[in-house]
Amino acid sequence: MLFVGVDIGGTGIQAGVVNEEGKILYRKECATKVEDGFEKVMDDINILVRSLLGENDLDIYEINSIGFGVPSFINKKGLVTAVNLGWYEVEFIESLKNKFPEVKVYAENDATVAAVGEAKFGSMKGKDIAVMYTLGTGVGGGIIINGRAFTGANGMGSEIGHAIIGENYFDCNCGNNGCLETFCSATAIIKYAQKLIEEGRESIILDMAEGDIKTINAKMVFDSYREGDVVALETVNRFKLYLSKAMASMVNTLDPDIISIGGGVSRASDIILEGLDELVRQHILYKKEDFTDIVCATLGADAGIIGAAFLS
Amino acid sequence: MLFVGVDIGGTGIQAGVVNEEGKILYRKECATKVEDGFEKVMDDINILVRSLLGENDLDIYEINSIGFGVPSFINKKGLVTAVNLGWYEVEFIESLKNKFPEVKVYAENDATVAAVGEAKFGSMKGKDIAVMYTLGTGVGGGIIINGRAFTGANGMGSEIGHAIIGENYFDCNCGNNGCLETFCSATAIIKYAQKLIEEGRESIILDMAEGDIKTINAKMVFDSYREGDVVALETVNRFKLYLSKAMASMVNTLDPDIISIGGGVSRASDIILEGLDELVRQHILYKKEDFTDIVCATLGADAGIIGAAFLS
């Protein structure tokens, strides 16, 4: 049986035909022409999927279902508001059904989709209760309960990047203070390193950025950490401390079988995972018990296509 | 069909025969002789349940199942460590099965049991995804998913009183800083009012305590709030602010149909619920969407017997 997964991002749309083993057999992509508006982007998605199938001699009736990941929340009415697509309460689910009347369609938030992919074929494979933190520009999340995507009563759950876990020196884009996203996103890591350097601390991070503080990225911070740079050490340790507080609260709340860390930040998996388990243990309630395995994601960017393909 | 629910507390054990409509038909209680040790308490529970049945001409084979609530975590092996019962890794589930071989037995943490009761017959009746905060000396929690008690992969979930939601001026009993319990338990309310008074603030709370700061209780704080006392106002507002942060994080994570507040503190339900909805809305991510109803528990102390009776 074959499945199609479509990962709709702010700059590009990736589509893939996936087999039952989670292998992407064929793939095709196109640009997201945000400026052309919702209807045109939906037309482009239709063309993308149908040409992906046509070019590989597949009939749409051979496809079990098509799943879509969107950088947004999908409300109970199927409406989507996705700021970086310029969509405001667009009839996304209705439009998908109209474009693809021949086949079942499913859609979820992209972080939830990534969690489904990791739970089906990646780092969280075969786990009943699984939580994924996607650490990138922001912090997204996906929750799997009884093997299926869980987004709550109104579809707005699993936004674990906006769990309030402390007090921070700047507010979150969502208007609150203390969201996990403001401690543990790539943006948060960059901001904190910049803050320390602006306060006069010396660091090789600034050398890596060729003296331009604005061009610092998270990779430079992790690379400097490897060199023993004190500012990088302080920045990464703060990141890990708050990540462990968030994960401990998650263990105390959902007690998952496994927690997986994905997103761009997880490329520094060796640094992130080192001692994290012990740090989480310090912050949970039942410190002597076996608890949640903590790992990094394994599917990389493909989780978007694979997870979407296996939505149900 | 009849069910038996047993609520095991640090001072007393309550047992009840409950019908299918959640009505307690007969009840009986005994003291918890903590000092006699685990085996003796289990014997007392056996005697309590059997005499409750005998006195009401009921045969144990007429009972569908017996459920138990304990002030503790039950691990995967059925072992219980309950500090205020003086139990350390006792074989609780094994012992229950030996005492009551004629009938199915179930057991859960008491806050989870209360949530089951409220979800079956009380404030959260008929809701698929429901969360209960029990605000008492500490803060307990119960999570219902798909209508059933959810405690996670290792049974240590739903301890939402130990979600880390900020930074506090004193540490939690669990060893961490910033647990919900340190902001929103009765103990936390008392401590904060005492702190303000010790700092020299005038308050009628102290008059209610007849000048003895050590005897302040949460009821005095809420009663003083009704009188417009500024220290009480500040204390209650702080409590509500952090409660709203915890609930907003819960909405962002599990997006429940309903959240119910139980425990002793919820007796001041009018004060607690006033404006709480709006405060939670301010702290959630999707501020314009319909979200979780927030209510107070309705079964009171009976939730312990009723919820235990309907464990499955």
Overview of the molecule:
Two copies of one chain form a homodimer. Chain A is built from eleven helices and 13 strands. Chain A is α/β, with parallel strands linked by helices. Chain A folds into two domains: 2-121 and 302-309, 2-Layer Sandwich (Nucleotidyltransferase, domain 5), CATH 3.30.420.40; 130-296, ATPase, nucleotide binding domain (Nucleotidyltransferase, domain 5, 2-Layer Sandwich), CATH 3.30.420. In chain A, helix 7 (218-226) packs across helix 8 and helix 8 packs across helix 10 (276-283). The longest helix of chain A is centred in the C-terminal third of the chain and has 24 residues, at 230-253. The two termini of chain A are 14 Å apart. The interface between A and B is large, with 51 and 52 residues.
The count of DSSP E runs of length 2 or more, i.e. the number of strands of chain A, is 13
- Helix- and strand-based class of chain A? alpha/beta
Largest interface: A-B, 51 and 52 residues
The termini of chain A sit apart by 14 Å
Name the beta content range of chain A: 15-25%
Estimate nothing, just give the exact number of structural domains of chain A.
Answer: 2
Tally of separate helices of chain A: 11
